[in-house]
Design goal:
Keywords: Membrane, Transmembrane, Transmembrane helix. By secondary structure, the protein is mainly α. It has helices at 3-7, 9-17, 27-50. The relative contact order is 0.14.
Length: 51
Amino acid sequence: MALAELILWPGTKVCEHYGIDPDSDAGLIRWMVNTLVYLVIMLAFVWIVVV
């Protein structure tokens, strides 16, 4: 498994769950899901480090 596939895994699984091809134009949905997932992870990390 390539690093890019590992990074895109959450969005790919959500797209597969809803029957959307993650490599088509709906890749924007995969991008949005990945952005939200990694935003929450990074904000939690920053919050833990700062506090």
